[in-house]
Automatic annotation (TrEMBL):
Pfam families: UbiA. The keyword Lipid biosynthesis does not apply. The lineage of its organism: Eukaryota, Viridiplantae, Streptophyta, Embryophyta, Tracheophyta. Keywords: Membrane, Transferase, Transmembrane, Transmembrane helix. It is a multi-pass membrane protein. This is 1,4-dihydroxy-2-naphthoate octaprenyltransferase. It is found in: Membrane. Its main location: membrane. One of its GO terms (cellular component) is membrane. The chain crosses the membrane at residues 67-84, 96-112, 156-182, 233-254, 275-294, 340-357. One of its GO terms (molecular function) is prenyltransferase activity.
Length: 363
């Protein structure tokens, strides 16, 4: 991490170093220069680690793969499935893992097609970890994106056939449509600053509720048993949507100049990083206020509130980090990954709390 090099800086300029052979006076006069050079080397190393210098191919591939971002496939599915289990004691393992694979494929399409269309507008011209730039072919990247989407659709329609609940397939298709109009021509609504509302809707109320309905059951003897829409899944989906949107919002901090140059008017281009950092603070505060309110109103069981409260230190870490580094492109790059951790841990807290409540623990 970039901060690791900075933390080691005092060791590189230790005052216990042996004096120069030219004498103590020369050593004293040379010491500030050596200290400045050492600090410059540390800053350069930190900048390179954060994307300011040349990156290894392995690092570029890791960033291009965006593996931590796939939590946005895992969390809505797991929370929606846990809400179904909490309500009716239903869990279909084969369907869960089939949907996980389908969701990962759809997110792969989302990431790859985003790189394709950003390359068309020039937004990713200097983005080294763009898949199009790494592969060197827009056509190959677009083909891989479309294949991923088709395979993902196959998994989703299989789950629909298993569940027999039309609400599932309608909601999940609406979520995918949000992803399409977010980035694909002729819409490209992300360029109009509408990416965050679309992200909230797609991964929150639409996807989380869809995965909840995917646990409806169809059998020869009893027909299709449909799950009712519950306040629990609505509350859970709002929290999932908020943390997902935080990831997208914080991913724009270090891209403001590039976005502005191609006319991509993200919220941070419009309001600036200082106001953006304040907005992150407000969003985190709203997240935990809603968590408490959902507990008080019994929309969520106490187990969800207790486990969710354990993520408060991470929420504070996100706020403090963004407030300190909002105007430092080499450091703020990491903010989205801290938001991914918050998203994943709060999602797991909600899912675990729902399962525990069903089994009489902190119900």
């Amino acid at each position: 991490m970039p901060l690791a090099g900075i933390a080691l800086a005092p060791l590189l300029v230790s005052p216990l170093a042996p004096p120069s052979p030219r004498g103590s006076a020369a050593a004293v006069s040379a010491e500030p220069a050596r200290r400045r050079r050492a600090l410059r080397r540390v800053r350069c190393s930190a900048a390179a680690a954060s994307g300011g210098g040349e990156l290894s191919r392995a690092t570029l591939l890791w960033r291009a793969a965006k593996l931590p971002i796939y939590s946005v496939a895992l969390v809505p599915l797991t929370v929606g499935t846990a809400a179904a289990y909490n309500h009716a004691g239903l869990f279909f393992a084969r369907r869960y893992f089939g949907l996980l694979a389908a969701a990962v494929l759809v997110i792969t399409w989302l990431n790859l097609s985003n790189d394709v269309y950003d390359s068309d507008t020039g937004a990713d011209k200097n983005k080294k970890e763009s898949v199009v730039n790494i592969v060197g072919s827009r056509a190959v990247t677009e083909y891989a994106a479309n294949v991923s989407l088709l395979l993902g659709f196959g998994g989703l329609f299989w789950a629909f056939a298993e569940a027999g609940d039309v609400r599932f397939i309608v909601l999940v298709l609406c979520a995918i449509l949000c992803g399409y109009v977010y980035q694909c021509p002729p819409f490209r609504l992300s360029y109009r600053g509408l990416g965050e509302p679309l992200c909230f809707a797609a991964f929150g109320p639409l996807a989380t509720s869809a995965f909840y309905f995917s646990n409806s059951s169809r059998s020869i003897s009893s027909g299709t048993v449909l799950l009712p829409l519950s306040k629990t899944v609505i509350a859970s989906s709002i929290l999932v949507g908020l943390t997902t949107t935080l990831i997208l919002f914080c991913s724009h901090f270090h891209q403001i100049e590039g976005d502005r140059a191609v006319g991509k008017m993200s919220p941070l281009v419009r309001i600036g990083t200082k106001t953006g950092a304040t907005l992150v603070t407000v969003a985190i505060g709203a997240l935990y206020t809603l968590l408490a309110a959902f507990g008080i109103s019994r929309c969520l069981p106490p187990s969800c509130i207790v486990l969710g409260a354990l993520t408060l230190p991470l929420g504070k870490w996100v706020v403090d980090y963004v407030q300190r580094n909002h105007d430092d492109d080499t450091k703020i790059f990491m903010a989205k990954y801290y938001c991914v951790r918050l998203h994943a841990l709060l999602g797991m807290a909600l899912a675990s709390g729902l399962v525990l409540a069903r089994n009489g623990v902190l119900a």
